[in-house]
Automatic annotation (TrEMBL):
Belongs to the carbon-nitrogen hydrolase superfamily. NIT1/NIT2 family. CDD domains: nit. It comes from Myotis myotis. Residues 45-297 form the CN hydrolase domain. This is Deaminated glutathione amidase.
C-alpha cells in the first residue's frame, strides 16, 4: 500500500502493508518505481489531500498556511482537500475564542470560498468557530464543519454534537462547552467527486453510533477533522480511526492539528487516511504538511459484499443504534 506525506514542493513516499484480500492499491501523486507498477486505471481514482497545520490565535497567518497546502493539493491533482478542526484559529481562552469567532458569511469564509474557486477543488473546513443565528441570545458559538464545492459555495454544514469536556491527567483540561453550543443534529452524507462524505468532528469519533448512522445513511467516506491532545493522541487516535473504518466499512479521513499552538496547548498531529479494511493508506508525521490517498469505491463496495455486516445487524436485540438519518 503506498501513501504519501507531502510538504510544499517535497514528497516522501511511505510503503505500508496491504490488506489480506485482493484490491487495487492506494496511490501517491508521483511516478511509481517499476517494482510498484499498477494498471493505468488506478490513476483515474479520485485523489484526496489531508492537510495538517499548527493553528495559532493569528487568523491571517493560519489562512496563509492552510492556503499554501490547499494550493499544493490542487497542484498535485487532488479533487478534495480536508482541513482540521480549528483551522481558523486556536485561542488561548474562551474569551479570546468568542472574540475571534465569525458568522459563516464573514470575511474568513469568503477567503476560503475564493480559494476553492481559485484551486478548482472541494474543501472540507473541519471546524470553524461559528457565530450562529442565536449568537446575540446565547453569546456562544458552534464548532461548525463546512463543506465547500469547487465553486466556493457552501454545500452543507455540520455543527459538532459531542462537546469535549474532559480532564485527562498530563493534558490540559478541555471545557469546550464554556464557549460552544452542541449542534442539534447530524447531517446527511453529501456526494462529492471522491464519494459520499459523512461529516463529524474530533471527539465525535468516540461515539460509534454516529459513524454507524452516517454509514447507514450512505456515507462512503467518514471525516474526523481533529485537534487531538498529546496524551490521548498516542493512546487512542489511530485505534479509534481504524475501528470506525472497520465497523462502517468506510474510508476514514482525519485531518489533524499538530505542534504547539501557544503556551497553553499542543496537538498530536499524525493526520491519516484509513481504508475500509482498516489499513492506514496515508499519514503525516508530527509537523505541518499534507498526505494524499486515492479513494477506490469499487473496492469499498466489493468489501461490503464479501463482509455484509450491515445485513447481519440485530436491532431487535440492541435497539436502533446507528439507525439511518431521516
Amino acid at each position: 500500500m503506498l501513501g504519501a506525506v507531502v510538504r510544499p514542493h517535497h514528497l516522501l513516499s511511505l510503503l505500508l502493508p496491504g490488506p489480506r484480500i485482493p484490491r487495487l492499491p492506494a496511490l501517491c501523486a508521483q511516478p511509481r518505481p517499476r517494482a510498484m507498477a499498477v494498471s493505468s486505471s488506478s490513476w483515474e481514482l479520485p485523489l484526496v489531500a489531508v492537510c495538517q497545520v499548527t493553528s495559532t490565535p493569528d487568523k491571517q497567518q493560519n489562512f496563509k498556511a492552510c492556503a499554501e497546502l490547499v494550493r499544493e493539493a490542487a497542484r498535485l491533482g487532488a479533487c478534495l482537500a480536508f482541513l482540521p478542526e480549528a483551522f481558523d484559529f486556536i485561542a488561548r481562552d474562551p474569551a479570546e475564542t468568542l472574540r475571534l469567532s465569525e458568522p459563516l458569511g464573514g470575511n474568513l469564509l469568503g477567503e476560503y470560498a475564493q480559494l476553492a474557486r481559485e484551486c478548482g477543488l472541494w474543501l472540507s473546513l473541519g471546524g470553524f468557530h461559528e457565530r450562529g443565528q442565536d449568537w446575540e441570545q446565547t453569546q456562544k458559538i458552534y464548532n461548525c464543519h463546512v463543506l465547500l464545492n469547487s465553486e466556493g459555495s457552501v454545500v452543507t454544514t455540520y455543527r459538532k454534537t459531542h462537546l469535549c469536556d474532559v480532564q485527562v491527567p498530563g493534558q490540559g483540561p478541555m471545557h469546550e462547552s464554556n464557549s460552544t453550543m452542541p449542534g442539534p443534529s447530524l447531517t446527511t452524507p453529501v456526494s462529492t467527486p471522491a464519494g459520499k462524505v459523512g461529516l463529524a468532528i474530533c471527539y465525535d469519533m468516540r461515539f460509534p453510533e454516529l459513524s454507524l448512522a452516517l454509514a447507514q445513511a450512505g456515507a462512503e467516506i467518514l471525516t474526523y477533522p481533529s485537534a487531538f491532545g498529546t496524551v490521548t493522541g498516542p493512546a487512542h487516535w489511530e485505534v479509534l480511526l481504524r475501528a470506525r473504518a472497520i465497523e462502517t466499512q468506510c474510508y476514514v479521513v482525519a485531518a489533524a492539528q499538530c505542534g504547539c499552538h501557544h503556551e497553553k496547548r499542543a496537538s498530536y498531529g499524525h493526520s491519516m487516511v484509513v481504508d475500509p479494511w482498516g489499513t492506514v493508506v496515508a499519514r503525516c508525521s508530527e509537523g505541518p504538511g499534507l498526505c494524499l490517498a486515492r479513494i477506490d469505491l469499487s473496492y469499498l463496495h466489493q468489501l461490503r459484499q464479501h463482509l455484509p455486516v450491515f445485513q447481519h445487524r440485530r436491532p431487535d436485540l440492541y435497539g436502533n443504534l446507528g439507525h439511518p438519518l431521516s
